[in-house]
Design brief:
By secondary structure, the protein is an alpha+beta fold. The protein has one domain: Glutaredoxin (3-Layer(aba) Sandwich), CATH 3.40.30.10. It is built from three helices and four strands. It is globular and about 35 Å long. The relative contact order is 0.20.
Length: 117
Amino acid sequence: MTANLAKKSRRRPPTNGRPPQDGSEDSNRWNLRLYVAGQTPRSLTAFKNLKEICEEYLKGKYHIEVIDLMENPTLARGDQILAVPTLVRKLPQPIRKIIGDLSDTERVLVGLDIQPR
């Protein structure tokens, strides 16, 4: 993955600047994994749409990890990725998946359980 997607997906510290005191995952933290296959227009659009949604609805509470399956195709197995781009919500549980360029904001919000159905 070139710098365009990778730089924007670096881990951010917890919003309060400290890790959770009880050793558990921060329940307000959203861990999102975006699977792409190179820097195609569709992959770039998916990342851009995801960033916009996260900044509007999850500001300061999210981490995006971009996985380029062109560089690491075996990583698709872990989350059972069959199509790209695919967004996987790792935390909060349960795991959720959304396939596509994430341009339908309402569908993404419902799919991630940010907004009720």
